[in-house]
Amino acid sequence: MSEDTQLVADIEALGARLAEAKGSITKRFIGQERVVDLTLSALLCGGHALLIGLPGLGKTRLVDTLSTVMGLNGARIQFTPDLMPADILGSEVLETGEDGSRAFRFIEGPIFCQLLMADEINRASPRTQSALLQAMQEKSVTIAGEAHPLTPPFHVLATQNPIEQEGTYPLPEAQLDRFLVQIDVPYPDRKTEHDILIATTGVEEEQAHAVFTAEQLIAAQKIVRRMPVGEAVVELILDLVRACRPGEAEAPQIVRDTVAWGPGPRAAQALMLTVRAQALLEGRLVPSADDVIKMAAPVLTHRMALSFAARARGEHLSDVIEAVARDVVRVEAAA
């Protein structure tokens, strides 16, 4: 069997397994297929996700279900203003042995897991938030000058409440950039909310079952990186990211008028990965221009900022990004 034939077979097998995983997830997290797809995309790409939504929309339930379905060792941290870095990373304690000798022993914190839920991450102080930076980027933490690697795979799914801003600390741009995607969790529609009422207020609830193991998820992440991306899609990603930077010559007038600063190269890397995952979740072997449009807002929104004048006018980044993406695709198609 040739290498290309084997890759096609691997992608198709992974697609079938992902369909089963989505079926298991939606037994407990009803509806919201877009939210499920984006979260799975983050895991398939080996990245982290920031879930933004109002209380009671099932963000915690989704992360708990993912831990079961993806076969990952999960942990949850409720972020509060008095949370300290050692509460997340762990600390060294001085122990006295039976022979009277004394030595330091490292006690691991909750970050030593495979799927970490950082609940209401913006309620912790910047000092505590920064404790996650090294772990999210380098998959290890340094305590007392000694590096402690995290067991792969390692993913952070953080939640943030968009309305309760009193007593919160905005995430620094450097940390936001570490999140592969930002996922907005909206209110469910009427039919979905009806199904939620029926499914969750009875004597028994549906239970999710494991579909992946940690090793299988790591293998899936390697397959995603092997998926081919056409040169036209690569150029489209570059054109889109560069068009969202107000200082670039390629930036359209809408970006110059509304955007204070745009996405960096890490955004283009994130798009290259997530369009592959999006295609895979839809049962296709290669990504298309439509995948770039679908993933543009989740990948770019938290890597950009509106100008003060644009915020005063009530502009929204998602609208700007979608307009720029469709314009770039139109220009590419015409060329």
UniProtKB/TrEMBL annotation:
<dbReference type="InterPro" id="IPR003593">
    <property type="entry name" value="AAA+_ATPase"/>
</dbReference>
<feature type="domain" description="AAA+ ATPase">
    <location>
        <begin position="45"/>
        <end position="189"/>
    </location>
</feature>
<comment type="similarity">
    <text>Belongs to the MoxR family.</text>
</comment>
<dbReference type="InterPro" id="IPR041628">
    <property type="entry name" value="ChlI/MoxR_AAA_lid"/>
</dbReference>
<dbReference type="InterPro" id="IPR027417">
    <property type="entry name" value="P-loop_NTPase"/>
</dbReference>
<dbReference type="GO" id="GO:0005524">
    <property type="term" value="F:ATP binding"/>
</dbReference>
<keyword id="KW-0067">ATP-binding</keyword>
<keyword id="KW-0547">Nucleotide-binding</keyword>
<dbReference type="Pfam" id="PF07726">
    <property type="entry name" value="AAA_3"/>
</dbReference>
<dbReference type="Pfam" id="PF17863">
    <property type="entry name" value="AAA_lid_2"/>
</dbReference>
<dbReference type="InterPro" id="IPR011703">
    <property type="entry name" value="ATPase_AAA-3"/>
</dbReference>
<dbReference type="InterPro" id="IPR050764">
    <property type="entry name" value="CbbQ/NirQ/NorQ/GpvN"/>
</dbReference>
<dbReference type="GO" id="GO:0016887">
    <property type="term" value="F:ATP hydrolysis activity"/>
</dbReference>
<protein>
    <submittedName>
        <fullName>MoxR-like ATPase</fullName>
    </submittedName>
</protein>
